[in-house]
Amino acid sequence: SACGVSRSVTITLAYLLVATDFSLVDLTKAIQGARHCACPNYGFRKQLIEFEESKKHLQLRERLFARFGPWPEDKREADSAELKEHMATQEYYLENGVYPGEESLEKAASGDPNQPPTKLNAAFFTVHTKNGSRDLAELMASRPAPPGATETAEAEKPNTT
Questions:
Q1: DSSP-based helix, strand, coil % in the chain, nearest 5
Q2: Looking at residue 5, what DSSP letter applies?
Q3: Which range is the signal sequence, renumbered to this chain (predicted)?
């Protein structure tokens, strides 16, 4: 299973539901805006929906604030602003199919090869070998052809005589 995708996201969502005035839908957008792969599984989502609908999060909020004191207003405002920023990021994704600052795969694939690389078409893979780390493209270019590869390529060429 992927780390930080379902269970930890569910716990974070439950905590934020208790600690903030945001809805589960908005908090889910905020979490996905901050961590794009965040996706609680079906069972966890169902539990979160039941938790919100039961209003138990409001009871827990009262207990939390009674025990530890109210959330300082300046921190509450700063945290709320950051959550709203992440919500806006996810809204942008939902409307445009890409996150802010990225370009679509279609645009990246059909772009001008003379233009500088962008986030989606800049691919750099490092290969770790016994001789150190190298760029994958450089490593592939420097490798000799496998034995018989040139004979196979020659045999596959059509006879033009």
A1: 60, 5, 35
A2: S
A3: 1-30
Q: What is the CA radius of gyration of the chain?
A: 26
- Domain spans in the chain, listed from the N-terminal domain onward: 7-96, 103-144
Q: Which of 26, 16, 27 is nearest to 60 (CA)?
A: 16
- Comparing CA positions, the residue from 79, 64, 17 lying closest to residue 45 is 17
Q: Which residues does 19 contact at the CB level (< 8 Å), separation at least 6?
A: 61, 64, 71
Output DSSP code: residue 103.
-
Residue with tokens 């909020």: 61
Tens-place pLDDT, residues 88-118: 998 988 888 888 877 666 665 555 555 555 5
* Tens digit of each residue's pLDDT (9 = 90 or more) over 1-19: 556 678 999 999 999 999 9
**How many CB atoms are closer than 10 A to CB 59?**
11
Tokens of 39: 């996706």
